[in-house]
Write a structure and sequence with these properties.
The chain is mainly beta. Helices cover about 10% and strands about 55% of the residues.
């Protein structure tokens, strides 16, 4: 180890040790209540929502977003916020707008976001039916509960987490840079879920048309999906399908991750990996074209009456069986 590298490692260790000492001291001074270290002065504010609306448009920096059905039929937004950065709640032309944008100063934002608390907004809807629901967030989280019926859902974010329950929607579109996507029980026409770094979990989904799930660095886990088409791809990560039935075409692609199928069927399938293996059980008879450059290949005898199953991998193995 050269002298420069050794010096850098020693300095890094010293900085880590200093940080731990400061944290321990702050923890001791606060009596173990870390919320006392919160620099921002948060308070809960209720905004009554006046006017009828069928669309919801939310544009926030870091706020956590949650929806609930109002028990008394009234609409309101309950916000956890600071005096310096309140949420602006308005209704214009049938659209509910909720906005909370911070300054461009990083230091100012850190002092007002806080460390152990974060702004949040809970929207109480007068009924469970909406036309369009649009959410734009930088680092916030969004949760849409079961029971909501909406025409189009669109969520975009940089770093966050999106959770959607058993809703009904014509289209659902989720796009994150760094974050996780979980959808459980939704019924939709078209579902698109994509993130650069993060995992995608889809459970008990009915998609009348198709599903597109894509992540660069992360895993894709799909259980109980029925759809016409499925396209799932990841660069670094695995793809797992269980109890999934695709009536038309299934396409799966990975670079370094494996593909696992557990009791899955499709009209046709195309699976491609670079260094990952392909394993699993199928519920539909297929005509196989399976190839591996360096790995072993074991597939059932082709059924000429079945759909096409093209499976290709460079260095991985292929093992496919029919489910009992």
């Amino acid at each position: 180890m050269n002298r420069t590298l050794k010096t850098i490692l020693i300095l890094a260790a010293c900085l880590i040790a200093a940080g731990l000492i400061v944290f321990a001291a702050a923890y001791f001074i606060s009596g173990g209540d870390l919320s006392k270290l919160q620099p921002a002065d948060y308070k809960e504010v209720t905004y009554p929502i006046e006017g009828e609306f069928s669309n919801v448009d939310i544009d926030v920096d870091v706020s956590r977003i949650e929806f609930r059905i109002s028990e008394d039929g009234s609409a309101k937004a309950v916000c956890f916020e600071t005096e310096k950065h309140p949420h602006r709640v308005t209704v214009e032309d049938g659209t509910l707008h909720i906005v909370c944008r911070y300054s461009s100063s990083f230091a100012d934002n850190v002092m007002n976001w806080g460390v152990f608390q974060a702004p949040r907004v809970t929207v109480y809807l007068p009924n469970a039916e909406l036309n369009k629901l649009t959410i734009q967030t930088d680092t916030g989280k969004a949760a849409i509960p079961s029971g909501v019926s909406v025409s189009d859902v669109s969520v975009k974010g940089d770093t966050g987490r999106v959770t959607i329950g058993a809703i009904e929607a014509k289209t659902i579109s989720i796009a994150l840079s760094t974050g996780d996507i979980t959808i459980d029980g939704a019924k939709t026409g078209v579902l698109t879920a994509g993130c650069t770094t993060g995992s995608i979990v889809l459970m008990n989904i009915e998609a009348a048309e198709g599903v597109l799930a894509q992540t660069d660095t992360g895993a894709i886990a799909i259980t109980g999906l029925t759809a016409e088409t499925l396209h799932a791809s990841t660069d670094t990560g695995a793809v797992g399908l269980k109890d999934t039935e695709i009536s038309l075409s299934m396409k799966i692609a990975t670079d370094t991750g494996m593909v696992v199928l557990d009791r899955c069927g499709a009209g046709s399938m195309e699976i491609t990996t670079d260094t990952g293996s392909v394993r699993g059980t199928l519920t539909t008879r297929m005509s196989f074209d399976a190839r591996s450059s360096m790995g072993s290949v074991r597939v059932p005898e082709s059924d000429s009456s079945g759909g096409s199953a093209k499976i290709t991998t460079d260095t991985g193995s292929i093992k496919i069986e029919y489910a009992e």
